[in-house]
Specification:
about 130 residues, two-stranded antiparallel ribbon, 3 helices, globular
Length: about 130
């Protein structure tokens, strides 16, 4: 992730979030082809909204996502776009995911990072890979 500052008419911002989300019941379903497709979908969502994914670690039972978004979107809107789109696509493409009542748990973790915290968050996510 570059040191990118997004600009608007009267504002400049560089807001970076570290999200952690889990499948429903923390099921270990994010592996193999599902994990590969999830990564593709997350990058597609980021590109669609002009967000930048700095780090991504997909574990069988959770996902770490470090993303820079603009201030037009609140953190809950950012994670809900990622969760909603990815859940819809993955459940359409992978029949075995229908055994879960829903793909994503409602809860998630988010923290904002400053310049110093960015390196710590990136290192932590890379250590999860």
């Amino acid at each position: 992730m570059k040191n990118h500052i997004a600009g608007a008419a009267r504002a400049a911002c560089a807001v970076k979030y570290h999200f952690v989300r889990c499948p429903k019941r923390r099921a270990s379903v994010l592996k193999g082809a599902v994990a590969n497709r999830l990564e593709e979908v997350l990058h597609e969502v980021a590109e669609e909204h002009e967000w930048e994914i700095g780090s991504l670690a997909i574990r069988p039972d959770h996902v770490h996502l470090f993303v820079q978004a603009d201030t037009r979107h609140a953190p809950y809107q950012v994670i809900h776009r990622f969760k909603g789109t990815s859940a819809h696509v993955l459940r359409d493409e992978f029949e075995h995911l229908h055994r879960l009542p829903s793909l994503s748990a409602r809860s998630y973790f988010v923290s904002t990072t400053g310049k110093a915290g960015e390196q710590v968050a990136r290192q932590y996510i890379e250590d999860q890979s």
